[in-house]
Protein 1
Amino acid sequence: MRDLKDHPELCAINTATLGFTQPLEAVIDAIARHGFGGLAPWRREVEGQDVAAIARRIKDAGLKVTGYCRSTFIPAATTQELRANIDANKRAIEDAAILGAENFVMVVGGLASGSKDVGSARRQVAEATSELVAHGRRHGVKIALEPLHPVYAADRSCLSTIDEALDLCDSIGPSANAMLGVCLDVYHIWWDPYLERAIQRANGRILGFHVCDWLLKTKDVLNDRGMMGDGVIDIPAIRAMAERAGYRGLIEVEIFSSGDWWTRPIDETLKVCRERLDCC
Amino acid sequence: MRDLKDHPELCAINTATLGFTQPLEAVIDAIARHGFGGLAPWRREVEGQDVAAIARRIKDAGLKVTGYCRSTFIPAATTQELRANIDANKRAIEDAAILGAENFVMVVGGLASGSKDVGSARRQVAEATSELVAHGRRHGVKIALEPLHPVYAADRSCLSTIDEALDLCDSIGPSANAMLGVCLDVYHIWWDPYLERAIQRANGRILGFHVCDWLLKTKDVLNDRGMMGDGVIDIPAIRAMAERAGYRGLIEVEIFSSGDWWTRPIDETLKVCRERLDCC
């Protein structure tokens, strides 16, 4: 397993970790200044801007773009709404191409508004993903399906486990190979009783690896995620599984923490992120 | 599938649904008065009391006891603590026998204090379960493993899926047959992408079936569970799966709802529970 200690260049910062309190330009510079190797920007920071200029700024700072975050939720109550969701994702994939992102991160969405039919939501996601993979191929952008913790099944992601994501990849067929894979976030997967088997199965298809921590006394399952080392996840054990399964990409820090890390100066958060690579 | 409408006798009330605001005797009488067929009492209502007298009171009210709730969490940081946890459960199993409970519900516990080793917690649970099944057999009490939603993996249950629970049953071996099975709660399992397959696999081993609902805007994953019909779970679809897998026991209403249902008079909560059998 790679040694991350004093190797921030092997790591990326997901800009959500810094709470979107600064302009992207300042965020890019700070991430580079702290020695990290890349970043994962969000559409809210990019759309409506000069995307090529952002791409240049990132490149000039010596940073890679890991995942471009993230898909518009897919499931919809009407075909019109479903089409709009897919089209929004196509435009985002085009921006991902301009950014030179290694992949476009898909958080697929939960139930359609007013629906209790999780099977229907999953079918919509499968069909949309197939179309988006084709669009990604045209633009040279890989699609990274990110299974989210089952606590979000209703409102954020009906795709809940690694196995389910791999089944979806398989269902799209061999034509998707090399352009479709999974993004693993320890927060979402650590509890899985079949984790090691599932990560092994993902061999060669792991496109991203996110770290943060699960706080024992989580106050808010969305926005009270912990800094690595402050929670209960055995992150090194999971990273070892991913690296045994061939993952060699950047280790990306993504912490949603409205009550704690987002309230601190970004330089402090970045400093602690770097120190806590020891816990990864 | 059985028709529950106007058939409260096919249903049981888990006493937690009523918020423990009344003495057990009043709770027993109210549940019977509303026409339900059984109840699931908690140890906090039973231990230190005359258990045989409680059993008589329940029987005289014409009610069955479904599950006896619930196990002391198993995983422990020391062998002494682990032994104490197992022994506490043995005593509870003896009370379950006196109550004539159909099973003893095991919520297995999360990580041991200070631990990040979920594998170790699972091994402790497996060993303890084996011992408790043997104890249950001696006392004529079945053990019902209840997988809890993965959101509780850290602090309440490292047993998170039906498949994991069935694997644990299988690992204990054929000697456990007929004395060990699973308790399914729609709140904990609805998100599972492999739900239908897992429930089918549980054929003949489903010892309990719990209903409540997952509120789309859940404020607290422990104590903000919804009344059936108020959330996003397709309860009839899941009950149909369980009944196709041979389940013929009572349908048990268990709602943890500190901010809503627990604040209401128990007669009101019971009345609404009965009405909402339509949604099950």
Note: Chain A touches chain B through 33 residues (CB under 8 Å).
Protein 2
Amino acid sequence: MWEEKENALHRTILFKDFSEAFAFMTRVAFIAEKMDHHPEWANVYNKVVLKLSTHSMGDIVTEKDRKLAAAIDKLGSVFFN
Amino acid sequence: MWEEKENALHRTILFKDFSEAFAFMTRVAFIAEKMDHHPEWANVYNKVVLKLSTHSMGDIVTEKDRKLAAAIDKLGSVFFN
Amino acid sequence: MWEEKENALHRTILFKDFSEAFAFMTRVAFIAEKMDHHPEWANVYNKVVLKLSTHSMGDIVTEKDRKLAAAIDKLGSVFFN
Amino acid sequence: MWEEKENALHRTILFKDFSEAFAFMTRVAFIAEKMDHHPEWANVYNKVVLKLSTHSMGDIVTEKDRKLAAAIDKLGSVFFN
């Protein structure tokens, strides 16, 4: 699901519409805020593009990114059908 | 699912946790704002209590409430398992 | 601002409209999730009613509630005009 | 505030932190959903980058984009200090 390249974890997800995409973003936002580790992400309509890396460590992939990615994947059973 | 009593549609939903409950609320909020018809609702942790009635019509159940209820039910395939 | 009665902190806030009320709720939701201490709250259109108490301590007001109340008050400069 | 270039309206906004940035995004999301006209946007921590254009018209700036930009500006008194 996640592609590791250029020192970051990448994933693009398509939803049914904007409302579903933004609800997903809200859930990710909660997780990120709780972990105090935030994604770089973009959205247009039903598409969400995620890029995870650790800025404080010089923009490389760390354990924090893998944990955030795993937590996002756990949302999957609810959101990614 | 919805109970009609005392001139309102009532429904209580339990989620896994607060984060899932609030993501559901965000989706309902979008629908409500788009319809310009808003619920009376309460939340504590994983529980959301909804009450739908039309204030401008003297707090009775109208077609607007039934449409909002139906739209919330359509979220069901994603959220209510 | 907060009234302490019946073993809980109470506050009612009126916003301009639903959209502003729900944006406020989103911010409170983030704080609550981060603190792992969640409010009992209700909303209808532009009104948000908050009730804070600590369930695990037998529904009394504890330091957790005072911290959550203070964090909500800090949002005030942005939201409560 | 908005810069028009390459057939789109652009604006970058810095907030205090992620929580404030995402609350702003939530408000924009409501407006967008109500207008049925959605932004292309990106976020990392406290930064939100907006790009508005009309896809159905061949990715040019239309009246829809100007209306969305104006509605976002109206949030300004609350969010942009």
Note: Helices of chain B lie at 18-35, 63-74, 76-79.
